[in-house]
Amino acid sequence: MRSLYNVGAFFRTADAVGLSRLHLSGFTGSPPSKQIAKTALGAEQTVPWARADPIAIIEDRRSAGWQTAAIETVEDAVDLFDWQPRFPLLVVFGHEVEGLPSELVQCCDTRVRIPMVGTKRSLNVATAGGVVLYELFRKLRANTCRV
């Protein structure tokens, strides 16, 4: 992510849904940062995070039995609302403008798209993160509340 404000928004959403860890990679900025702190409102100090090579973390989680999902608008992507994720889960988001590199998309078990009906085919990455993480939070709660 280019914008430190988007990084801060991810930290705040991660805190809100109880994410176990936020992995940052590439040129994505990391705490400490005034811009991150402005939108994270302290979540950058409470959400566990680490810098990670994206392919290495995808492979590590897959070998540990996690499902991995690339959030990307590609031809074989499943609609977010139709997707039945398997937990534990690693969700991978990309660059605000360019999305995820194809090698990262192909490393993941599945590809998921956010349904859109307007003329724009993408959302701000922090907004997309909020939509996806809250839908996953809803699905996880629904699964754990069943008798």
How would you describe the overall organization of this protein?
The chain is of the alpha/beta class. It has one domain: Alpha/beta knot, CATH 3.40.1280.10. 39% of the residues lie in helices and 14% in strands. It has five helices and six strands. The chain has a four-stranded parallel beta sheet. The chain has a two-stranded parallel ribbon with strand order 1-2. Strand 1, helix 2 and strand 2 (49-51) form a beta-alpha-beta unit. Helix 1 runs parallel beside helix 2 and helix 1 (4-17) runs parallel beside helix 5. The chain is globular, with a radius of gyration of 15 Å. The termini are far apart.
Keywords for this entry:
about 150 residues; alpha/beta; Alpha/beta knot; 4-stranded parallel β-sheet; two-stranded parallel sheet; 5 helices; globular
